Amino acid sequence: MADPIPAGERIAKVLSRAGVASRREAERMIEAGLVTVNGKIIDSPALNVTAKDRITVEGKPLEAPEPARLWLYYKPIGLVTSASDEKGRDTVFDTLPEDMPRVMSVGRLDLNSEGLLLLTNDGGLKRRLELPSTGWLRKYRVRVKGNPTDPDLEPLRKGIVVEGERFQPMDVTLDRHQGANAWLTVGLREGRNREIRRAMDAIGVTVNRLIRVSYGPFRLNELKPGEVEEIRPRVLKDQLGLSEVPEAPAAPPAKKPRRVVRGSEKPAPATGARPPRTAPTPNGRRGGPSRTPR
Questions:
Q1: CA torsion, ordered 83, 84, 90, 92, to nearest 10 deg
Q2: CB 47 within 8 A of CB 91
């Protein structure tokens, strides 16, 4: 006779849903001895827990999970998309407003890329939005050095192999030439590490600016570098089909962060599209502690 399935959910999943960390990071915290269940330190994530169990993380009781929430954030150039950085570089979480809860990023943008980064307090929502099966198109405004022609971009539309790794076909539009550069609009449905930069290098052009302007139905719109804006609960429910979202009033206007990074010049407008506003903002001092666990 098969053993009965344990009641409850895996401890790492519960920590992730509560916004403590991603599931993988929660597993590392467990292995480091930072989590207790019913007064006992656990060292393995292979444990199911229920609402009756008493859980602490770094000595603090685990709070009941909040409804899933989602924010738009304009990541400036020069910030790392991680909870901490071994080189001591500033992270996106060092710049968030003081009243933001602990959040996680949906995917990443590399150090020299900018634009839309989604933030959430819910690990389950983070995983859902990152899955390739979601099939959401992610659009980028890309400035490249050189003057490629439309036929030069055709390999990207068909799918290209770079260093033995096959990239899926991209939606690529040549918008305009501007001096020694050209502006493109690129759409991906399954992003890989530095995929656009690597693909452009493979056809002989170099990316010198990359801005993500949308992620599925969510758009950068008028956000400026460093600004953050919460998605209204009703919009989040409609777009994602969530049954549990906070019935709160409309989100307040985007708040100025404690620290921002100076932007560069305004990108060339795309044909038939409204470009993001990237007016530079003054540098300030580094903000307080990270909003994600170390």
A1: -10
A2: no
Instruction: Determine the Cα–Cα distance for residues 43 and 265; give it in Å rounded to an integer.
Output: 50
Summarised one tens digit per residue, pLDDT across range 212-269 is 999 999 999 999 999 999 999 888 888 886 554 444 434 444 444 444 443 434 444 4
Burial class (CB in 10 A: 0-12, 13-18, 19+), 173: middle
In angstroms, the CA 45 to CA 26 distance is: 8
Active site residues: 110
Domain ranges of the chain: 9-61, 66-278
> What CATH number belongs to 9-61?
3.10.290.10
Q: What's the rounded Cα separation, in Å, for the pair 72 and 276? A: 13
Considering the entire predicted model, what is its pTM? Answer: 0.69
- Determine the residue type at 95: T
DSSP state of 183: E
The three-class DSSP label of residue 100 is coil
Look at residue 128 and give its three-state secondary structure. Answer: helix
Q: What are the beta bridge partners of residue 211? A: 114, 141
Q: How many helices (H) and strands (E) does the chain have?
A: 6, 17
